[in-house]
Amino acid sequence: RPAYYWLCNSLNLYCPVQWEYGRLNLYYSVVSKRKILKLIEAGIVNDWDDPRLVTLTALRRRGFPPQAINMFCERIGVTMAQTILDPSALDACVRDYLNDHAPRVMAVLEPIIVTITNWHELYGDKSSVELTVADFPAIPDSKTHSVLLQQELYIENTDFQEVAEKGYRRLTPNQPVGLRYTGLVLEFSDLKKDSDGKISHLFVKAQKVEDTTKPKAFIHWVSNPLQFEARLYDRLFTVKEPESEKNGFLSVINKVCPNTFVSFLLCFSCFCADRSLLSLNKLQIVFICITHFRLRGLYATNFHIIQNSLVIIPGALIEQSVKNAEVYTAYQFERIGFFSVDPDTNSKRMVFNRTVALKADPGKTI
User: Fold this and answer.
1) What percent of the chain lies above the pLDDT cut of 90?
2) What homologous superfamily does CATH list for 17-101?
3) Average pLDDT for 331-345
4) Which family does it belong to (predicted)?
């Protein structure tokens, strides 16, 4: 600044008043364009709009509404000193805004199929029952949408335990559970396991809520669903201030690198199980796997494909009401989190990015 004033005074020019403000930084991230470019060139992130970054285009793609970003800036104020904040402060603003503006829908990320064995006793010859669900259940006279209930439905695999943990409140062989919006309580009857010994199918008996004891919990579900790809984002770095690391910020990337060959086989099996790819032959799926495997640090589990701080779930299920949702439309997936439609969505595949998870309730039991 002294050199600037000297030059203006030497040339007899007006010196406008300057106000300098400190740069806002977030923990577990980098905001330098030079460092972000290194992340892109190294294949750690895909581009400038990768939702793990904190560029405006990245925040938009992840589903952060501009109103929430403005709210965040208003809350923290302006300072002349450099500021580093925890990203949870920004997440809180996003939750506050989306809680009032993102309609609720039901989605299942890790589905397990459930068959209601006494369906015909409850609904006769009907193949499905149409239910009306509020977009914002806490708001009286909220807009609504319709969902179908059928004899076969899907629940989260974590909503059933064959051997219940202490304090577990959802479905077990000895404990019924309520089904949201249906007025039904499910009681366990039987189960099937696959060749690996994992539960693949549940058989339950349903009763009207008024005809039985009120259950300890109600769970979400989907029936006649759409398949979609869910992308769950985590912090890109494992330390609060990656730029201060002695070995450089690239040394603290949040990633897992298991055996490459095993990873590829798991990735291949995961894509083979994707119902949207049934029309492809095995060779075509191999090429798809190779394309995805080029992303650094990519591997797969039964339900997930995991990259650097990113979990991809290709076989998630969601209700039909979101079928024609536009890109960047925000929803709250009940009991899961806030999600936004990703630009990768097309007529054959829907993709949702998790914007933020729901706020944890420390007093809530499992």
Assistant:
1) 67
2) Glutamyl-trna Synthetase; Domain 2 (1.10.1160.10)
3) 97
4) Belongs to the class-I aminoacyl-tRNA synthetase family.
